[in-house]
């Protein structure tokens, strides 16, 4: 089993029994989403921003405007942390204290670099789009040079990481199991609804197969 090395920064202390450092399990959490949360410091203030991402091996790619203060801040510091979380269930216990959620969460630590080459930038932007909707990029018009020039793409190399996973039911106090109070888990999942065509030409077109496939797999 290939694991990220444990250190002071990525070692899980609270709920360590739910922790994993397994590279494959952490990658599965990254593969399951397309939104991450990026932390940075701006003028002494801690801020967290949601961002679309793509991941490949030990790299995570994010992008934004060349004037984006978060991207510029983390590029200057050359370090950041990124978190991806999936909510899988509401755990309803017999007492308020023991309410919880089932979830998969990965926190990544690493270094950054700016992608300069336009061909590489374009390929990465395609990966970000395809992480959101598989096979979407090849159906789009090519990017204009002015769009590439205004876009900042950063490569984040994962150096350390950890994940926490809760996938069990209610854990109540022993004496509470005799109480006549309903307890259990409400499973939660993100679903896709039927695609809605944009106005104009798309309203007269058949919905592309790869989008209908995504709908069928996630409805």
TrEMBL record:
Entries under InterPro entries matching the protein: Pyridox_Oxase-rel, Split_barrel_FMN-bd
Question: What Pfam families does this protein map onto?
Answer: Pyridox_ox_2 (PF12900)
This protein is called what?
Answer: Pyridoxamine 5'-phosphate oxidase family protein
């Amino acid at each position: 089993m290939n694991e990220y090395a444990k250190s002071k920064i990525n070692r899980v202390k609270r709920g360590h029994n739910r922790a994993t450092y397994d590279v494959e399990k952490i990658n599965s959490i990254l593969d399951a989403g397309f939104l991450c949360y990026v932390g940075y410091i701006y003028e002494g203030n801690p801020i967290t921003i949601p961002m679309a991402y793509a991941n490949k091996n030990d790299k995570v790619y994010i992008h934004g405007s060349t004037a984006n203060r978060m991207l510029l801040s983390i590029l200057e510091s050359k370090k950041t942390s990124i978190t991806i979380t999936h909510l899988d269930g509401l755990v309803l216990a017999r007492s308020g204290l023991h309410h919880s959620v089932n979830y998969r969460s990965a926190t990544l630590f690493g270094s950054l670099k700016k992608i300069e080459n336009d061909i590489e930038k374009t390929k990465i932007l395609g990966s970000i789009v395809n992480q959101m909707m598989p096979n979407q990029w090849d159906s789009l018009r090519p990017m204009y040079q002015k769009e590439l020039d205004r876009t900042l793409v950063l490569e984040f190399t994962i150096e350390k990481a950890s994940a926490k996973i809760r996938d069990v039911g209610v854990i109540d106090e022993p004496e509470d199991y005799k109480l006549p109070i309903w307890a259990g888990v409400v499973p939660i999942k993100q679903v896709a609804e039927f695609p809605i065509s944009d106005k104009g030409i798309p309203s007269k077109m058949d919905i592309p197969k790869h989008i209908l496939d995504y709908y069928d797999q996630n409805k």
